[in-house]
Amino acid sequence: MQRTWMRWGSMLAIVLFISPIVVAQDQLREPRWGSTRGWPRGAIYVMNDWQDDVKVSMWSGRREWIGAWVIRPGDRTVLEVDGQQIKVRPNYKIKVGEEWGWVDVGQVGQFQQGTWYVSVRDIWRATHGPRQGDRAEVPDWRR
């Protein structure tokens, strides 16, 4: 009887010891958005809510350059390459301007009915951080 309890206790201890390791490995493999097949993919609609023309650049999730577009102030446009709308996933990279870094579309965009909606101001904030000059020039209700 005591031997059976020891056997079961040993097996339980092993399971309790190994399960966090197995769960952690599974979580490390999964990207933030889950498996690639389940990622929402769709056209990308960019709104320039900035005061100047802006250059928007985009890369795939594998960091392959897709293109760059100049968007005028107040314009809203669906990004295209060779006359065809591009379809992006949340891990695609987007950037405003020539300097600084890029950000994932999924961090700054909203996915609704098959389309990603992104604002230039949100991309800028995500890649450049809050700037005091930006705050002084634009009223709070416009930010």
Q: What is the H-and-E element order?
A: HEEEEEEEEEHEEHH
CATH architecture of the largest domain: Sandwich
Helical content class = 25-40%
**Tally of individual helices:** 4
Mean pLDDT: 80
Q: End-to-end distance, in Å? A: 71 Å
* Count of strand segments: 11
What summary fits the major beta sheet?
A: 5 strands, mixed
- Based on helices, strands and strand pairing, what is the structural class? alpha+beta
**Name of the level-1 CATH class of the largest domain:** Mainly Beta
Which topology of the largest domain does CATH recognise?
Immunoglobulin-like
- Overall number of domains: 2
Unreliable stretches covering 5 or more consecutive residues = 26-31
Radius of gyration: 23 Å
* SS strand fraction: 25-35%
Shape type: elongated
Tell me about this structure:
This protein is of the alpha+beta class and 143 residues long. It has helices at 2-29, 105-108, 120-128, 132-137, and strands at 42-47, 54-59, 65-71, 76-78, 80-81, 84-85, 87-88, 93-96, 103-104, 110-112, 115-119. Strands 1, 4, 7, 10 and 11 form a 5-stranded mixed sheet that branches. A 4-stranded antiparallel sheet has the order 3-2-8-9.
